[in-house]
Amino acid sequence: MEDEEAILFDSEAFERMKKEWVLRPTTQSPRRRCCGLKKRVLWTLGVVSIVILTAVLAKKLPRQEKQPQPPQEPYINALRKALMFFNAQRSGALPKDNNVTWRGMSCMQDGVWPANFHANLSGGYFDGGDAVKSNFPTSFAMTLISWSVIEYGSKYQSAGELEHVQGVIKWGTDYFLSTFLSEHDTINSMVSQIGSRGSGGVPDDDFCWMRPEDIDYPRPVKLCLNDCPHLAAEMSAALASASIVFKDDRDYSKKLVHGAKTLYNFSESMSRKDSNSRSSTYWDEMLWGGAWLYYATGDADYLARVTSRDLAERAGAFSSSNADYGVFGWESKLLGAQLLLTRLRILLGPGYPYEGMLREFHNQTGVVMCSYLPNFRKFRRSKGGLIRLSQGHLQPLQDVANAAFLAALYSDYLEASSTPGWYCGPSFYTLKNLRDFSKSQMDYILGRNPRNLSYVVGFGERYPSQVHHRGASIPAHKKESCKGGWRWKDSNMDNPNIIQGALVAATDKDDGFQDVRTSSNYTEPTLVGNAGLVVALVALGGGGTLDKNGIFSAVQSFSPPSPPPPAPWTP
C-alpha cells in the first residue's frame, strides 16, 4: 500500500513539474525575443556560409584519395626480398634502380677479352656465389619465373612487384639473345658459359675470392658447337615463356619467339645425331622447350611433337619407379613439362589426337602429387617435417621450393576447372591437402623449423650470416687481389653486406645447418634456388588468383579432326 502511494505521489509531482517548469509560458520581453531571433538568424547564416565555402574548396583542392595498400602477409613480404637477390646477381652496367648499394659495374669485358668471341657479352647474371655466368641453370631460372608471372600476374601486381619481376626476366633474356645469332633462322654454335671453375690453382672464378667489380683475370668464353641439345632446348623454353610475359610488347615478344624457334631447331638438329639413344639426359628439355613453344606460338606442330609417345618415353615419363621421379629442378624438367601439358588438358581439352598422351601426363602428375603427401612413403621427411627429395645427406632447399610451387599450382589448376581433388589409389584427396603440403614446406624454409632459423637471408629475426658469396663477404669498395680476398672467405665474421632474399643451399637429414662461409654446400645461394623460392611464395601468397586464360593467348580454339572410323565389320 505504501508503495502504491509512493508511485502516486511521484506521478503527481511529475505532472506539477511539467506544468510549472516545462509548460510555463516564456516571460521574455519583446526586445529580448528580438535580439534572440537576430542571433539565431546570424548563427544560421554563418553555418550556411561555412558549408558553402567547404563545398567550394573541396571541389577546387586536389583530393587525397586513400591508396590501396599492397598485401603484407608473410609470403608476400618474403617474395619482395627474394626478388632482390636477382638485383644482387646482375653483371654488367647496372641500372640506376638496382637498389643494391654494395654492387657496381662488373665484367664489362666479357666476350671481348682475352679473345674477341663476340662484340659484347656483358650483362646477364652470376649464377651463384662466384662470378660464373652459366646459361643452363640461368635459363631454367628465367623460365620458372616467367611461368609464375604468366599464372600469377595479378598477385605480382597487387604486391607492387610486377615491373620488378618483369625487369628480372628481361635482364636475363636480353643477355640470352646476345649469346647466339638470334636473328638467324639456323645456327651452328652458341655461348654456354663465361668464366670457369676448378682450374687447379690458376686464377679463375673458383680459385679467386674477390668482388666481381674488381676481377682482373681472364674469363674464358665457352662455346657449344654440337653437343648441347639440353642447353639449346632450355634457352628456347626461357625465351618462349618470356614472350608470353611480354606479349603486349609485340616487337620484343616477336624477337623472343624467333630466338626460341632458332634454338629449338638447333637442339633438334643435335638430338638427331643421337636419335637411337634412350638414355640421354636431354629429352626432358626437348619436351619442356617444345611445350613452351606451343603456348608461345599456338603452332600445333609443337603440340604434336611433345605428345608423341616416343619423346615422352625418352624423357622418362613412364619411369615412375625411379628414386628421383618427382624431383623437379634445373637438371630434370620432366615433371614441370607434364604439369604444363596437364594444364592444357584440364582447362582447354584439345581432345583427339592429343588426348591419349595428355591423359598419361595428367595421371603421372597425380601420382607425383600423391607422393608429396605425408602419408605416402616414397619420400621421407626430417623430424622437423621437411620432405627429403634427395637421397643424400643434404637436402637442397631449391628442390623443396619447386615441389611446393608445383603442388600449389596443380591445386589452382584443379580449382579453376571446378575439380575438388584427385585420387591416390582408392583414397580421395582435396585441394587443401596439396596446399597444406606447400605451406608446410615453405613455412619450414621461412623459419618454422627445429632451429627457428629462416633460410632466407633478411627475412625473420634469425637467418644465416655467413653466406657463401664473394660480393656479400667483402666490404663495399674494398679492392682485394685474387688471393688477398681469401681472408674474407676464411673469416668467421658475419658478412658485411646482407644479400637480401638469398635462399641458402641446403639443410641436412637431421634438420641441421652449418652457418659457415666455407661450407658452400650449406650456405651458397644460387639463381635457380631463388627462382624456386620466388615462384612458390607467389603461388601461396594472396592478392590475386590464377590467370586461367592468359597462357592461351596464342592458342587457337580447337576443332580437332574426328577419330578414324572403325574397321568395316565382317561376319
TrEMBL record:
PROSITE patterns: GH9_2 (PS00592). InterPro entries: 6-hairpin_glycosidase_sf, 6hp_glycosidase-like_sf, Glyco_hydro_9, Glyco_hydro_9_His_AS. GO terms for biological process: cellulose catabolic process. The active site is at 468. Keywords: Carbohydrate metabolism, Cellulose degradation, Glycosidase, Hydrolase, Membrane, Polysaccharide degradation, Transmembrane, Transmembrane helix. It comes from the Eukaryota. One of its GO terms (molecular function) is cellulase activity. Gene3D superfamilies: 1.50.10.10. It catalyses: Endohydrolysis of (1->4)-beta-D-glucosidic linkages in cellulose, lichenin and cereal beta-D-glucans. The keyword Calcium does not apply. Its EC number is 3.2.1.4. The chain crosses the membrane at residues 41-58. Residues 75-537 form the Glycoside hydrolase family domain. It holds the Pfam family Glyco_hydro_9. Belongs to the glycosyl hydrolase 9 (cellulase E) family. This is Endoglucanase. It comes from Brassica oleracea var. oleracea.
